Amino acid sequence: MPEIKVTPLGAGQDVGRSCILVSIGGKNIMLDCGMHMGYNDDRRFPDFSYITQQGRLTEFLDCVIISHFHLDHCGALPYMSEMVGYDGPIYMTHPTKAICPILLEDFRKITVDKKGETNFFTSQMIKDCMKKVIPLNLHQTVQVDDELEIKAYYAGHVLGAAMVQIKVGSESVVYTGDYNMTPDRHLGAAWIDKCRPDILISESTYATTIRDSKRCRERDFLKKVHETVERGGKVLIPVFALGRAQELCILLETFWERMNMKAPIYFSTGLTEKANHYYKLFITWTNQKIRKTFVQRNMFEFKHIKAFDRSYIDNPGPMVVFATPGMLHAGLSLQIFRKWAGNEKNMIIMPGYCVQGTIGHKILNGQKKLELENRQTVIPEYEPGWSLEVKLQVEYMSFSAHADAKGIMQLIRMAEPRNMLLVHGEAKKMEFLKDKIEQEFSINCFMPANGETSTVATNPSVPVDISLNLLKREMALGGPLPDPKKPRTIWRASLRLVSPEQALKELGLSEHQLRFTCRVQLQDAHSDSDTHIRIYTHLKSVLKGYTIQHLPDGTVMVESIVIKVSSSPEEPNTKVLLLSWSYQDEDLGSFLSTLLKKGLPAALSSM
Amino acid sequence: MKLYCLSGHPTLPCNVLKFKSTTIMLDCGLDTTSVLQFLPLPLVHSPRLSKLPGWVSKDGTINLEKELKECAGRVFVDSQPEFCLPERELLDLSTIDVILISNYHCMMALPYITEHTGFTGSVYATEPTLQIGRLLMEELVNFMERVPKAQSATCWKNKEIQRVLPGPLKDAVEVLTWKTCYSIQDVNSALSKVQLVGYSQKVELFGAVQVTPLSSGYSLGSSNWIIQSHYEKVSYVSGSSLLTTHPQPMDQSSLKNSDVLILTGLTQMPTANPDGMLGDFCSNLAMTIRAGGNVLVPCYSSGVIYDLLECLYQFIENANLGSTPFYFLSPVANSSLEFSQIFAEWLCHNKQSKVYLPEPPFPHAELIQTNKLKHYPSIHGDFSTDFRQPCVVFTGHPSLRFGDVVHFMELWGKSSLNTIIFTEPDFSYLDALAPYQPLSMKCVYCPIDTRLNFHQVSKLLKEVQPLHVVCPEQYTQPPPSQSHRSDLMLELQPPPMPYRRCSVLGLPFRRRYERIHLLPELAKSLVPSEIKPGVSLATVSAVLQSKDNKHTLQPVPKPLPLPPSKKRKRVVEEPPEVLAPKPLLSGSVPLEAFLAVLHKVRVSLKTLNTYLAC
């Protein structure tokens, strides 16, 4: 029996370094190829040696698909393709193809130039890797080879994020990547049609959360920013360059405009300016409202938000700063944080999820004193052994565009999968969601750990060619509207689409007729013709829904069964019934012979 | 399978395909050449036009002074311009299930088809086609509505009267079906029925037919369509180009193995080379500007204009035209320029890679930024204060009958310093200029039509090898003006099937097979036996289930197991239900074995008879 196998190399009961292997219909597909933000050693990348111990991956993989540009989904791509070795096709959407190399380069710079790591991929490798990328359009059916096809759906999460359907014959798998089921200020909601995949592989970052309405969260966010600015404090918002940053910028921009606020808003330069430009060019990937109005007013041209310069860190007075990276694990956001952390008037707002091991994660857990334990968060400016008192207010606001439990259930309802498989979440939370899914939808739900394989048996139907004449003939049997209660049986459809007559003819075979005959003796004190009528009436009352005829020569016919009566002049009351039927009516024929053996009821009127 | 042809215009087609009980309209082009019979609609009062003499028949019996005006020996209808619609009587438009749009020029009749006709289906188009098509429709409505005409002329359409009118009015066809422009409400309502599709997206129609748009290389989001079932394939080719301009290149390989290929939208200028025309355009433009004249370019607001601007972007500096203002006037100028920059997915490879940088894919962004190109919604407002001469003006409509171009014709027509350069191939430039005669302005005709020419199309057809080709009759003979050019027609084996307006063609293929699925349980129960080498046979008894045009064979349901409480006797009294028939008996009978079995049976028969006698 055919089966589909799913093995996460990363993101199995974990968040980070998403990398999932799928084997379907003899094809092997890698879904995402991410890095883990919480590690700086080998665990940073998925363990590709699972695929092969040595040599290149090309011959083991039919294609690689990247769902979106976040590094935990594409960060290991150049390592995989250039250092481990893979020359096959890599698919991603246009915005992902545009933005992904920039983030990779940025990541490389931080790792190699700042942390001084060697044995890492180079700029050239990123370029070579991107040459293997084939862009993917939404809803386009891409034929990877004769059998394997993939199709991308809108996923919301970030600009260019996609869910992918992978299909071989009638078997299919849908991988969601990260997605968001509620439209936000700049992106639309994820959508998929009722494609009924054999397995739906879904992220489950917020498996146990059901978030309050977005409006409340936004109001909360604005209130906190407003209060801090009013009392002269500084607000630091660590973000990823693309995604939440743009949404929050739109939010603050409109708020500043409405409230006529004067305090400056800064955006750390470099990536982010460019990022806004990407949003302008890929406006078709944003939400309905922005797309509709972009000619009059492009939402990504900000009036109140200016570029940040490192020297502004020590400026007096209130300000709001968006700085990268989002988890405070390195770079400018960490630098600013260090300067502002000691003042309780200031505030840091963490608008997204922080991976374990990052400073972001620590302060969110209420840690008030930070120390540098090992080289995990090394930034050259800081000597080993530094420590930091956290006095500023720490706020967490979930603006991450992940589906919450409600959203995941909603997607299941949309796609109607036969099996569910959870990745990209914490094991405990997954467990909870798994129970809920199995209860509500009565489908199997898997949650394999990294390196563990989940297998789903599929039961594909067999496509056959049927000759149109045969099909039409059989469909016409039921009249124009087939009676739903009475299924028609179709008989004699040969496997290669031809009708039986044709098949016999083509093969030079002849059809055999097999007939059964049988004599039944019966005591009946009537004339032969009266007995005929009595049999006819009797059968008519017993056999409902059968064609029963009384032929002019006296014979009674039930479907193809012939019944004849004869008697000898010596014993006129002893009738001999001759029954004859074809093999096709064997059931009915033997029933009739048994029935008639019991004789005719006396009460039969002779009409 | 039938094809109903509702339009006779080869590049503005409107055909309806009936295939497997679905009714599919392929494009709904609006033939706008009819507006050439009308007087231009000036934006500001034109003394010249209002003083034109009315027309009275030579013998004075027919007086249509109010409706018809004479200008330079030709007669024009003085009324709101009207368009020649696709045929609406040939079949009931409310029975159409879907409309497939191939490019934004071929959808301009959409509101006439979907509104007030009982149409309840949906329309499929790519996103750029929808957005730019909307712009062009809005522009058309705007052009018409901002200069409303009080009177509408109808008398001249009377058959008896039209017969005696001077040509070309006399020869105008289907005049009774001509209609004035739709309203913006109709446009919005019609476009709300559009469902967006992407290239190579497989769209299922009622489970019976699958339609797929393919890149056609002609304009932003332009597509050819594949209409197929499991066994039959129809390709619809409309407005395709193999030249490298801004759109994504044409997808040719997917057209292979078609049973029927419907071919429309070939170039209207088979003898003009687009590259050469582009060169002529630039040199004429530079010459006029250097001589102190103005250049007027009547054009559509989207399409070739992007290529013209890109060409000028490189040309301006070299030709030392850096200080010459370029104006683009249209109610949708800004939208058109903005929209062109956001469809990266639909652009050629070069332009796509610019977006990755990120830079705008079209260089007109830079022309606008450096103030070399300015755009305005109309001649009123800001434009009148910014206007400097000599200059280059791009504006519509290319028919010269409405839009801002009418104003510039009146303004610049009298000076031989000025030049009008025609780049759109849809209208004869002589006819377009007729109501402005006598004219001193220079006229240059550089029609740029990037669609397939006859040479390219015969190469393409050789490549994709359709079994049959259907095309407008115009393509089966050389153009009337060049009747000796046998290379300007389609010569194929078997010859193409020509159609004209109101043709109904029976397409030559028979459906013989249909796809059916055997459920795995049923498939497992089959026992094929090899009848001869390579041929195995198994008889199938199954229940046919047909749902949404998908057919499945299921195993015959087993009779319910007998409830144990019932006595066997009772069962016999129930007639057997109609169940799976016995297998088909065929093949050779092994005689020896058969006789042996018969022998045994005879014994048992005897036993039976003895039993009965008791």
The neighbouring-strand order within the major sheet of chain B is: 8-7-6-3-2-1-22
Instruction: State the separation between the terminal residues of chain B, measured CA to CA.
Output: 69 Å
Q: What is the helix tally of chain B?
A: 17
Q: Which pair has the most extensive contact?
A: A-B, 71 and 72 residues
What best-fitting shape of chain A do the alpha-carbon axes yield? elongated
List unreliable stretches of 5+ residues of chain B: 565-572, 608-614
The class by helix and strand makeup of chain A works out as alpha/beta
Low-confidence parts of chain A lasting 5 or more residues at pLDDT below 50?
374-381, 479-495
Helical proportion of chain B, percent range: 25-40%
Q: Report the C-alpha radius of gyration of chain B, rounded.
A: 33 Å
Give the spatial strand order of the biggest sheet of chain A. Answer: 6-5-4-3-2-1-22
Q: Based on CA inertia axes, which overall geometry of chain B fits?
A: elongated
Please summarize the sheet with the most strands of chain B: 7 strands, mixed
Q: What's the number of extended β-strand segments of chain A?
A: 29
Q: Fraction of residues of chain A in helices?
A: 25-40%
* Continuous helix count of chain A: 16
Judged by helices, strands and strand pairing, the structural class of chain B is alpha/beta
Rg of chain A, alpha carbons:
37 Å
Beta-strand content bin of chain A: 15-25%
GO biological process, one term (chain B): RNA polymerase II transcription initiation surveillance
Protein name (chain B): Integrator complex subunit 9
Keywords (chain B): Cytoplasm, Nucleus
Subcellular location (chain B): Cytoplasm; Nucleus
